[in-house]
Design a protein that fits this description.
The protein is mainly beta and 148 residues long. It is built from two helices and nine strands. Keywords: Signal.
């Protein structure tokens, strides 16, 4: 148990450094370029492959399938909506090499953004999806992207 806790804590420290933040009212499309810094080197005990979490929100977006020879990218995105209206924005994801075949955009606890994919979005090095953010809120999405 202590070893698992240490591995989980280490993974959390590494992943929290990769945070992208933006105000949804100031940009209609947020471009995120996934680089070598975002690559997950070692998945602790296949935890990212199983995509098992204690918390689920109906607005989480998971599309595609995982493959054996994939490169996995991980990024956290903070989205602020300071207005009293629901705002939507588009998040564009880009990888340098390969084609994206899996996307998971999941909310952290007390985050209520709703993700919607676009038709035929997988199978390219650049994909995008739409996000709606509730009024007067800040949402945090964890992006897990796999490409081959």
């Amino acid at each position: 148990m202590p070893r698992y806790t240490l591995v989980a804590l280490g993974a959390f420290v590494l992943l929290t450094g990769l945070v992208e933040a933006f105000d949804v009212t100031k940009t209609k499309t947020e471009n995120i370029f996934l680089t070598e810094e975002d690559v997950v080197k070692d998945e602790p005990a296949g935890s990212l492959r199983a995509n098992v979490r204690e918390y689920r929100f109906i607005g989480d977006l998971v599309i595609g399938d995982r493959l054996a020879d994939e490169t996995v990218f991980r990024r956290s995105v903070d989205i602020a909506n300071p207005t009293n209206q629901v705002y939507s924005t588009t998040i564009s994801l880009n990888v340098e090499r390969g084609k994206i075949h899996f996307l998971s955009a999941t909310n952290e606890r007390n985050s209520y953004a709703v993700g919607c994919d676009e038709p035929y979005s997988l199978g390219h090095s650049k994909i995008s999806f739409n996000v709606r953010v509730p009024p007067s809120s800040k949402s945090q999405l964890w992006l897990l992207v796999a490409a081959h």
